[in-house]
Write a structure and sequence with these properties.
Distance between the termini: 24 Å
Structural class: alpha/beta
Number of domains: 1
Shape: globular
CATH superfamily: Flavodoxin domain
CATH topology: Rossmann fold
Number of strands: 6
Radius of gyration: 16 Å
CATH architecture: 3-Layer(aba) Sandwich
Helix content: 40-55%
Number of helices: 6
Order of helices and strands: EHEHEHEHEEHH
Length: 189
């Protein structure tokens, strides 16, 4: 099982018009694919019709997302910081699902103004704990992100690639360990 690539789902949380998310997400996705040992699936929440009322009617798009989340071994959330927290689109997709998150690791790539999205990440750690996920310690964060990337979508600071590698290394360790655990002893929430 160790040699089987992990199914990594990268969730792009921002849905705003004119968002910076694709620049950050494309860079990180490239890092994940070049890291190896993972199959990357990108879910861009701007492309998903997410019902914000829980208990209402689900959509066909949300059902398709549900199966992709269920197949994941690990997640990376690429999120901005909105009003000292994370986007409503992300909270809605988390809340519409439960078992899909169980006993799986979550990593974060955040961006924003002065705090680099870290307040959003700290809020998300609590939310993901509630749905029985494990968040990895290290994050990748870009303060004033629009100034941190060049015109080709690459970070101006080469240290960003090292931070992404560290996050992916941790995520892979947790992903393999938890996948083996879910296989040998199904997780009970």
């Amino acid at each position: 099982m160790e040699s089987t690539p992990l199914n990594l789902v990268v969730i792009v949380a921002s849905t705003r018009e004119g968002r910076f998310a694709p620049v950050v997400a494309n860079w990180f996705t490239e890092q994940a694919r070049s890291h190896g040992e993972v199959k990357v699936d990108v879910i861009d929440l701007a492309e998903v019709d997410i019902p914000y009322v829980l208990g209402g009617e689900s959509t066909a798009e949300l059902a398709a997302v549900s199966s992709r989340l269920a197949e994941a071994d690990a997640f990376v959330v690429v999120t901005p910081e909105y009003n000292h927290s994370y986007p409503a689109s992300l909270k809605a997709v988390i809340d519409w699902h439960h078992s899909q998150w169980h006993a799986k690791p979550v990593g974060f790539v955040s961006y924003g103004g002065l705090s680099g999205g870290l307040r959003a990440v700290e809020h998300l750690r609590q939310v993901f704990a509630e749905v029985h996920s494990v968040t990895v310690r290290d994050t990748v964060s870009f303060h004033a992100a629009w100034e941190r990337f060049d015109e080709t979508g690459r970070p101006r600071d080469a240290a960003a690639d090292g931070a992404a590698k560290k996050l992916l290394d941790q995520l892979l360790w947790w992903g393999r360990t938890l996948r083996e655990g879910r296989t040998t002893s199904p997780y009970q929430a």
